[in-house]
């Protein structure tokens, strides 16, 4: 039986986080009433002329720089002609043979090993409108469909990968890494539920050890990480079955259906000549000066990879790094703690662990966390100086997150600090030993487990405030002295 190798290339459409559309001044706000953010330009009225959004260009350049692309000094907008009810002009303004960025790459970590995924190009284009089908999920089964053009002309970049991806896991890691990078740059909100990031997934198979690529299918608009993996698995299974049965793969555009977790055919794959591309006569070629590109390069924020390296050097675990880097605001929070004097590892432990879960419980984000980075650093200080045990600190943390008070204030109000004063504790220990002479004898005869009972008594006596390791030591010392 032939064993096949999987070949995957991904096209990611990312919506750029501009306030206004790509070629007009209409708002890009998500969720507004249908057809309220429209004008003659994005409605495709004859004679209305597009004006390019400068900010969108800036964002596309940022994406290119952050993916090590060659940002082109000249690129050209083209008309991609096709007819569909969500596209009133009858063509989409896109870039074709002269896109804004060429070549580049993104590194992912697959089971701890670095793998480089090539990026073929990035081009800018406008989004289409949205169709809402009545009576069915698809246009084919619908009785009628509504058209909402609020999204028409929203700025997108399409990032096309080389066919370098080999597994569903790699595909997921690639899109995750890409999303993370765009979100860090602040140029895309990364919100997959709202369609701000969609992946088209090209899959083909070839017999292991052979060079030429097999025929691919393209599964359109997959909009969650889980669906990306599932769509690929199902497409691999389908193609394997066909090829094993001696059949051919038809080059198709397919659609993933979450309900059945399979892909189904949408249409036979179009070729680029079907679109009758030609340069957009209403727009000049896009010319970027070296100076502008350099200015943008100088303003790029620290990217996830550089942050990860910095955290790794500071001793954070890979797990901690992953959690901290999921959202930019989490790493911002950690960085503010570090800037305020926290030991990175200590702060990370709380940010990833207890603070993370307490914030989730109270539905707060790191950005609006009622305990500020300065507050967390104060808490770390209380632990460091022995005033709070880890367990007590967790309770104080919960209070802070609920009330917005600083840890010092919470501790002062409750008066509950850890007792780590030896003299104070020895007095308690002696009292407990006197009251439990039988247990003391047991410990002396070698049953050291019985010390746990004494320990429990001391904790009870001090309402859990005694420093545990110190108590244990003092119990054993006091017994030895008797
Ligand atoms: P189209 O617009 O026709 O989809 P693009 O050039 O925009 O073509 O995108 C092609 C995508 O498909 C790229 O991500 C590329 O890596 C990938 N690809 C090309 N050939 C294959 C193949 N045989 N198997 C899997 N992926 C492929
Ligand atoms: Mg495509
Ligand atoms: Zn408009």
List the helices and strands and how they pair.
Layout: E1 4-15, H1 54-66, E2 70-71, E3 74-75, E4 77-81, E5 91-95, E6 101-102, E7 105-110, E8 113-126, E9 130-134, E10 144-148, E11 155-161, H2 168-185, E12 197-207, E13 217-222, H3 225-244, E14 252-257, E15 262-268, E16 278-279, E17 286-287, H4 290-299, H5 304-313, H6 318-325, H7 328-339, H8 344-352, H9 354-361, H10 373-384, H11 390-403, H12 407-414, H13 422-435, H14 437-444, H15 451-461, H16 468-481
Helix pairs in contact: 2-3, 5-6, 7-8, 7-10, 8-9, 9-11, 10-11, 13-15, 13-16, 15-16
The structure holds adenosine-5'-diphosphate, magnesium ion and zinc ion.
Q: What shape does the CA trace take? A: elongated
Q: Ligands bound here?
A: adenosine-5'-diphosphate, magnesium ion, zinc ion
Low-confidence stretches: none
Distance between the termini: 80 Å
For the secondary structure, the number of strands is: 17
**If helices are DSSP runs of H or I spanning 4 or more residues, what is the number of helices?**
16
Nearest-integer average pLDDT: 93
């Amino acid at each position: 039986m032939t064993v096949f190798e999987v070949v995957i290339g991904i096209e990611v459409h990312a919506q750029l986080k501009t306030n206004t559309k790509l070629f007009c001044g209409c708002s890009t706000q998500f969720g507004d009433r249908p057809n309220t953010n429209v004008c003659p330009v994005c409605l495709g009225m004859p004679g209305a002329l597009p004006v390019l959004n400068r900010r969108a260009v800036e964002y596309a350049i940022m994406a290119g720089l952050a993916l090590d692309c060659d940002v082109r000094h000249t690129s050209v907008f083209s008309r991609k002609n096709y007819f569909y009810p969500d596209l009133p002009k009858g063509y989409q303004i896109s870039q074709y043979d002269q896109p804004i960025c060429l070549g580049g790459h993104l590194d992912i970590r697959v089971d701890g090993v670095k793998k480089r995924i090539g990026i073929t190009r990035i081009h800018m284009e406008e989004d289409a409108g949205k169709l809402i089908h009545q009576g069915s999920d698809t246009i084919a089964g619908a009785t009628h469909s509504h058209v909402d053009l609020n999204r028409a002309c929203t700025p997108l970049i399409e990032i096309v990968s080389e066919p370098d991806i080999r597994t569903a896991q790699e595909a997921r890691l690639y899109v995750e890494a890409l999303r993370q990078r765009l979100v860090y740059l602040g140029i895309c909100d990364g919100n997959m539920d709202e369609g701000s990031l969609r992946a088209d997934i090209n899959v083909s198979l070839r017999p292991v050890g052979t060079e030429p690529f097999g025929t691919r299918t393209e599964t359109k608009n997959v909009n969650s990480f889980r669906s990306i993996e599932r769509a690929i698995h199902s497409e691999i299974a389908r193609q394997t079955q066909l090829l094993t049965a001696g059949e051919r793969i038809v080059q198709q555009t397919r659609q993933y259906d979450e309900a059945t977790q399979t892909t189904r055919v949408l249409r036979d794959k179009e070729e680029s000549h079907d679109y009758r591309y030609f340069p957009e006569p209403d727009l000049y070629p896009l010319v970027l000066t070296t100076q502008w590109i350099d200015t943008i390069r100088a303003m790029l924020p620290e990217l996830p990879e550089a942050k990860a390296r910095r955290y790794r050097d500071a001793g954070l675990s890979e797990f901690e790094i992953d959690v901290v880097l999921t959202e930019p605001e989490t790493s911002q929070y950690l960085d503010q703690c570090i800037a305020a004097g926290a030991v990175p590892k200590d702060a990370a432990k709380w940010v990833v662990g207890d603070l993370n879960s307490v914030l989730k419980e109270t539905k707060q984000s790191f950005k609006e966390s009622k305990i500020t980075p300065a507050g967390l650093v104060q808490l770390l200080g209380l632990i460091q100086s022995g005033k709070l045990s880890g367990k007590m600190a967790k309770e104080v943390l919960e209070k802070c997150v609920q009330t917005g008070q600083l840890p010092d204030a919470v501790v002062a109000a409750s008066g509950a600090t850890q007792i780590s004063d030896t003299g104070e504790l020895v007095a308690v220990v002696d009292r407990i030993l006197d009251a439990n002479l039988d247990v003391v004898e047991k410990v002396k005869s070698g049953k050291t487990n019985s010390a746990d009972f004494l320990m429990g008594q001391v904790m009870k006596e001090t309402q859990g405030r005694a420093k545990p390791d110190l108590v244990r030591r003092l119990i054993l010392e006091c017994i030895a002295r008797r």
